[in-house]
Design goal:
The complex is a heterotrimer of chains A (483), B (494) and C (100).
Chain A: E1 6-8, E2 11-24, H1 63-75, E3 83-84, E4 87-90, E5 100-103, E6 113-119, E7 122-135, E8 139-141, E9 148-152, E10 159-165, H2 172-189, E11 201-210, E12 220-225, H3 228-247, E13 256-260, E14 265-268, E15 281-282, E16 289-290, H4 293-301, H5 307-316, H6 321-328, H7 331-342, H8 347-365, H9 376-387, H10 393-406, H11 410-417, H12 425-438, H13 440-447, H14 454-464, H15 471-482
Parallel strand pairs in A: 12-13
Antiparallel strand pairs in A: 1-2, 2-10, 2-11, 3-16, 4-5, 4-15, 6-7, 7-10, 8-9, 11-12, 13-14
Helix pairs in contact in A: 1-4, 2-3, 5-6, 6-8, 7-9, 9-10, 12-14, 12-15, 14-15
Chain B: H1 9-18, H2 23-36, E1 43-46, H3 48-63, E2 75-79, H4 106-113, E3 117-122, H5 162-169, E4 175-180, H6 186-192, E5 195-198, E6 218-223, H7 226-236, E7 266-270, H8 280-295, E8 299-303, H9 311-326, H10 346-357, H11 360-373, H12 378-399, E9 405-409, H13 425-429, H14 436-440, E10 445-452, E11 458-465, H15 470-484
Parallel strand pairs in B: 2-3, 7-8, 7-9
Antiparallel strand pairs in B: 1-3, 4-6, 5-6, 5-10, 9-11, 10-11
Chain C: H1 5-14, H2 21-38, H3 78-82, E1 88-89, E2 92-96
Antiparallel strand pairs in C: 1-2
The chains are: A alpha+beta (483), B alpha/beta (494), C mainly alpha (100).
Bound molecules: magnesium ion (MG) and zinc ion (ZN).
């Protein structure tokens, strides 16, 4: 592996990256109120008196949000703090009705954990410092009116997990791998839908540069970057910008920056520049959060098999590492494949078929695996028909096409269309005799030593059989007939 | 026929039930008293129709021969810190001028559910910050009491629940809600010769009550006597799932449990409450209180609460810190007043709105609170104060080893004149010296009238009880009430 | 610790309360008087003492994940939410345009 380096005029620079990922917790209601969390509702239609910070309103936490954050912590092998508390982060902004965000600074719910990533050939462990639970802010719209910004509080108070990594990443691609892996874990756990377009997951990107081996440099934080590609682009741009600043004798200012996806550049964010003095203190409206063993036990028991474990299990079943990786990357694929195995499909053959035939077909018809017209049960049946010799590879392809169109079971298709492969030696021998009789020249050449013509006779025989002959039987009988 | 406004809560409740008079007659009498007393500036909003509607409902229930609710026919005053649906609620601050809640506070809802009606919203110190009612944005309340020196100097009704204390003592309502953060029920009760109890923190839901300092705020009743306080507190208390700090415990039948005998009880006298420069009259009243509880059968023991001295400074860190954050929501965006100077951006709008909307004392406390929480000072101020708070609570725990309830004066002086202390914030803060420690520990505490000073002004005695032992506090106060024979009342001059 | 005019202005800015120089200067002795008095807390030996976290011993209750179970804490009440807004348009609160 070659280290990622920025080539500067003064030599090579190393990039140091830490990510704070805000993941929206999957829950029906908000963290501290009973308003709905659904995406895309009419402005301010999912706002309670609490979310609008009306005078005298009080927060009461949603158990499901706590549970999902705990399960997420467990999924990255993190320490779960049985005693945690909520703090207020105080600042003024139009998307923050209370004038403070209820968050966790001093005693977060989840402590140290880690995420294993693969970047090319290299496996690396990225430390996670903490996960805390906090409220999302509302949304401002600036393009609706010439002199006014519009405030929609539907997002205000939705539960977020802030997952804070250690500054352990050293390249844009490592950061990309970390984000993809984290997203997969969240989606396996079911604690976040990982939908980056809808803002369910977004990252604050902390970047600094240094000469290899030197102390950490001053970092900047690029806020709310909402795709893996943009995170990588933001790092690339920001690291290069910092190298330019430093090499031209400047200093890096610790500041908040914004990423512009259209230009791929970052710029300083004026509106949040002032006074980073958040005056955190324990929220006096909330008591300490104390979790008992039964709660933690339930959280642990409800965790599914996670991507790493699943991949190892697949490999142990004889599935290639490449296929195992592809099949576990998305939770829906893994779920579909697990059902296929449950239906009795042979793992290695099934993995090839899913990653080849099925993915190809889905791609072609523009559907994802949850919308597949073919069920795992039908696919298992198809694979079984191939395994027991009823269908040849090419017949299987034909049957699969019909399955995609009609949604019928393969057995039914084979019956109705007579696509069954034949192993009837008498019938095949008759056809072979005919083929040899019709191609005397080729027969003479073959017998004269041009053995490559064997394939020609196979093809002619299969063609004459309408593709339904068992290829193995054809091979054997041809060898015999050709002497 | 007696003037119905001379009657207390129990008398009205029983009279309506027995048909001695109708609830409508009661409501009309009090409505008239309210509108005749505007000079006192006790009410910010008058709601005669609300009182009449509740009265008519009570009369209808009685006419139908059905069981009346516990407060049926009783009209009360509502401190303007409680949000009331469809009735402006301002915390006596300009910043909330015109704010009409679309919801009812948990405590006021409980009172309406118990059959009470509302005479109006009561004036108070702005955002409950003050001890004299002079911080109200809508003019100070004038106490109905006057010194007997013929000077007619306007006096403070105490604060922050000064509209409540003035209204009850002037017979404008038989009872009123108050809130107490550091003494805001007890001190005004003492200043006006009425009773008031702050229950255990968590007894009364804080939902819908405009927050001052969340870890200290508690609602409670203010009324003419101990029994009326017990009746009203029963209606106001109870678990509320909407308030995470609400206590999920049953509400005792305090009225039924009243018992003025203190036989077998030990009353503690905290040594550290003998503060410097305490007026002799207060000292003498305290001594009389000791004699009265002995007479009621109690054993009197001296106890020590060694951290008493630090309660006020700890309070004046914790309360402003919480307030600075609680009041951040008043920003002119979603409700209340907005001040948008020509060309101002969002942050300038906030600063202008808050500068124009908040009064001086509110600003002072927000600044103190902001300062003590700011980077570099948090541990020295807020964390240290929170630790001292633990020690103060521990002092009380230790005291309960040797006594059941504590007896102290309520305030270090009788009512002072309006304007006498308003230039010296610190002197004003020192008024809370006896009430703040029990607030920091979340304990139930009550003020009951004990007598008059040489100017003919009321003085109060305070009982502090163990957590959840409101009954012990009410009983001790009843023992004093029965022996003090306090019948003085302000002569109507308004 | 004591404050000067610059500190008072900084704190007022953090608290979003506009004050002019004269006001800030007036506040300096007032706040220093209060802060000086508060500082006697430093005398108290609090080593080994935990800060108070719950006034009355009690732990945090959690709510079920149900939408609009109680109309007082649920959503779907846009009119009530906007009823007191100093300025609202098309279902939004509005503020002076923010440039991010
Ligand atoms: Mg961040
Ligand atoms: Zn965050």
């Amino acid at each position: 592996m070659t280290d990622y380096r920025i080539k500067g005029a003064t030599g090579d620079w190393e990039v140091v990256i830490g990510l704070e990922v805000h993941a929206q917790v999957t829950s029906n209601a908000k963290l501290f109120s009973g308003a709905a969390t659904a995406f895309g509702a009419e402005p301010n239609s999912q706002v309670s008196l609490i979310d609008a910070a009306m005078p005298g309103m009080l927060p009461v936490p949603n158990r499901e949000c706590i549970r999902q954050a705990v399960r997420t912590g467990m999924a990255i092998d993190a320490a779960i703090n049985k005693w945690s508390r909520f703090d207020r982060k105080n600042y003024f902004y139009a998307d923050l009705p209370q004038g403070y965000q209820i968050s966790q600074l001093y005693h977060p719910l989840v402590g140290e954990g880690s995420v294993e990533i693969e970047d090319g050939e290299t496996v690396k462990t990225i430390g996670v410092e903490r996960i805390h639970v906090e409220q999302d802010a509302g949304k401002l719209m600036h393009d609706q009116h010439p002199t006014r910004s519009y405030v929609d509080l539907n997002r205000s108070g939705v539960a977020l997990m802030e997952i804070v990594s250690r500054p352990d990443m050293r390249s844009p691609s490592e950061a990309g791998a970390y984000l993809r892996k984290l997203r997969a874990i969240l989606r396996y756990v079911g604690s976040c839908d990982g939908n980056m377009e809808e803002g369910s997951m977004r990252a604050d990107v902390n970047v600094s540069v240094r000469k290899p081996g030197e102390e950490f440099g001053t970092r900047t934080e690029t806020k709310n970057v909402n795709s893996v590609r943009f995170v990588m682009a933001a790092i690339e741009h920001e690291a290069n910008r910092q190298v330019d600043v430093l090499e031209s004798g400047g200093k890096i200012v610790q500041e908040t920056r914004l990423f512009n996806p259209d230009t791929g550049t970052t710029r300083s964010m004026r509106s949040k520049e002032d006074a980073h003095d958040y005056r955190y203190f324990p929220d006096p409206d909330l008591l300490p959060l104390e979790l008992d063993d039964a709660f933690l036990e339930e959280c642990r028991a409800s965790l599914p098999e996670l991507p790493d474990a699943k991949r190892k299990r697949y490999e142990a079943l004889g599935i290639t590492p490449y296929n195992a990786e592809v099949l576990t990357a998305e939770v829906e694929t893994a779920r579909w494949f697990d059902t296929l195995l449950d239906e009795g499909a042979a793992p290695a053959a099934a993995s090839n078929w899913v990653t080849g035939e099925l993915f190809g077909a889905l791609n072609r018809i523009g559907k994802d695996i949850t919308e597949s017209p073919v069920t795992p049960g039908q696919a298992a049946e198809l694979l079984a028909l191939v395994a027991d010799g009823t269908l040849s590879g090419s017949l299987a392809k034909q049957v699969f096409e019909v399955m995609l169109e009609t949604g019928d079971a393969p057995g039914k298709i084979v019956e109705e269309r007579g696509l069954k492969q034949t192993s009837d030696t008498g019938a095949i021998e008759a056809v072979i005799a005919d083929v040899l009789a019709k191609n005397p020249n080729q027969l003479e050449q073959y017998r004269g030593g041009k053995v490559a013509l064997f394939g020609f006779f196979v093809g002619q025989t299969m063609k004459a059989m309408g593709g339904k002959a068992n290829p193995q039987v054809v091979n054997d009988l041809l060898k015999k007939a050709l002497g | 026929m007696t003037d119905l406004t001379d009657l207390g809560i129990r008398e009205i409740r029983d009279g309506v039930r027995d048909g001695t008079f109708s609830a409508r007659e009661v409501a009309e009498s009090f409505n008239a008293a309210v509108s005749n007393a505007r000079q006192l500036n006790a009410f910010l909003v008058e709601t005669p129709d609300h009182a009449l509607a509740a009265a008519d409902a009570a009369d209808a229930v009685r006419a139908a021969g059905e069981t009346l609710k516990p407060l049926a026919g009783v009209p009360i005053g509502m401190k303007d810190l409680f949000c009331t649906k469809g009735v402006t609620s301002t915390a006596a601050s300009h910043i909330l001028e015109g704010f009409t809640p679309q919801y009812e506070s948990a405590v006021s809802q409980r009172l309406w559910d118990a059959g009470a009606g509302m005479l109006g919203k009561l004036n108070m110190d702005q955002f409950a910050m003050g001890s004299s009612n002079e911080t109200s944005a809508f003019g100070n309340v004038i106490s109905p009491w006057r010194r007997n020196d013929g000077g007619n100097a306007p006096l403070a009704p105490g604060g922050s629940s000064g509209g409540s204390s003035a209204a009850v003592s002037a017979r404008l309502c038989p009872g009123a809600t108050g809130t107490d953060t550091g003494g805001s029920i007890r001190q005004p009760a003492a200043f006006t010769g009425i009773s008031g109890i702050k229950p255990t923190y968590g007894r009364c839901s804080r939902w819908g009550t405009i927050a001052f300092a969340s870890s200290l705020d508690q609602a409670g009743p203010m009324a003419r006597d101990v029994r009326d306080c017990a009746i009203m507190l029963e209606a106001m208390s109870g678990f509320d799932p909407k308030d995470a700090t609400s206590l999920d415990v049953p509400v005792p039948q305090w009225e039924q449990g009243l018992n003025a005998s203190l036989a077998g009880k030990r009353v503690g006298i905290p040594r550290e409450y003998r503060v410097d420069n305490m007026p002799e009259e207060i000292e003498a009243l305290w001594q009389r209180g000791i004699e009265w509880v002995k007479d009621a059968g109690a054993e009197v023991v001296e106890v020590s609460l060694p951290h008493t001295k630090y309660a006020l400074p700890a309070y004046y860190i914790i309360a402003p810190a919480e307030a600075s954050s609680n009041l951040a929501r008043y920003d002119g965006v979603r409700y209340g007043q907005r001040d948008l100077p020509e060309g101002a951006n969002l942050q300038a709008m906030y600063a202008a709105t808050r500068a124009a909307g908040f009064g001086e004392e509110v600003k002072r406390r927000i600044l103190i609170g902001t300062y003590v929480l700011s980077a570099g000072f948090y541990d020295a101020y807020f964390t240290q104060a929170s630790k001292v708070r633990t020690l103060i609570a521990r002092d009380f725990e230790n005291a309960w080893e040797s006594c059941d309830v504590l007896l102290t004066p309520t305030a270090p002086s009788a009512a002072f004149g309006l304007g006498e202390k308003s230039d010296d914030p610190l002197a004003m803060y020192l008024n809370d010296v006896f009430t703040v420690p029990s607030s920091l520990a979340g304990l139930p505490a009550m003020s009951v009238p004990g007598g008059l000073d040489k100017h003919g002004l009321p003085l109060g005695l305070q009982f502090i009880g163990k957590a959840l032992d409101e009954q012990g506090v009410l009983n001790a106060a009843l023992a004093i009430e029965e022996r003090a024979g306090f019948t003085a009342r302000p002569q109507a001059w308004w | 610790m004591s404050v000067d005019t610059a500190t008072v202005k900084k704190v007022a800015s953090l608290a979003r309360i506009a004050i002019d120089d004269a006001h800030a200067e007036r506040l300096v002795p007032e706040l220093n008087n209060i802060l000086g008095w508060i500082e006697q807390l430093g005398e108290v030996d609090t080593s080994g003492v935990a800060p108070m976290t719950a006034v009355i011993p009690n732990t945090l209750r959690l709510r079920d994940d149900v939408v609009n179970a109680d109309p007082l804490t649920g959503g779907g009440i846009r009119d009530a939410v906007l009823a007191n807004a100093p300025q609202a348009e098309h279902g939004f609160f509005t503020v002076p345009k923010v440039i991010e």
